[in-house]
Amino acid sequence: MCKLVIIDDNPTDHYIMQRLLHNNYNCEQATYTYDGRLVLDFLEENKQTAPLLPDVIFLDLDMPELTGWEFLDELESFNTAENKHVQVHIMSSSIRSADVFHSKKYACVNSFMTKPLSRDLVNKICEQAGPRQLNIA
Question: What pTM does this model have?
Answer without folding.
Answer: 0.90
